[in-house]
Predict the 3D structure of the following.
Amino acid sequence: MQKQKLKAVVLLSGGLDSATTLYVARSQGFDLHALSFRYGQRHIHELDSAARIARAAGVMRHVVLDVNLRAFGGSALTDDIAVPKHREMAEIGAGIPVTYVPARNTVFLSLALAWAESLGATDIFIGVNALDYSGYPDCRPEFIAAFEQMANLATKMGVEGGARFRIHTPLIKLTKAQIIKTGTDLGVDFALTSSCYDPRADGRPCGACDSCELRRKGFAELGLRDPLER
Ligand code: ZN
């Protein structure tokens, strides 16, 4: 009899990092359950990318949840605040940028945990990265460790089932170039991904926001061409 594969819930924004994370989970033999959010982001276009990536990776199921964080605002991604453009790398790495969305990863991971427990899955993947976005407090290893501990205290599976939830962060210590290399080796089609915080009306990247700058730097360091650059 064939051994049943373990299920994993993977947070999939549609960006380069989450696409690579999805393929890392696939390479580890998990049955993939991809989770995306329509959270009032100005770059809603990324959800089309998420759907294409999920299809390409052969996920069992892709769920897009509506959680309108724009009702709260407080971020350049969910409010009428301009997205910073043309910033130097030193600037990007310093402080918490206005593109930080209040408690976003706490909200997203909580919903991923709810789905995981419903599925009987203990493995959750998130493509956070502590190097390039050192400013985001909810991308730090300390946050992930604290969330994991909370997940095991907060769930029936953790308390009664003897299950141990794990939050996997395969990219947390990688540079953008290392992430692109990892994704390339695993067969990610980066033409399907979308990284820009403030894309044009037709969905093409702005080329100047922090996310576009980091993406460009990552491909340049590898001597590769970004398939989105035309
Ligand atoms: Zn951009």
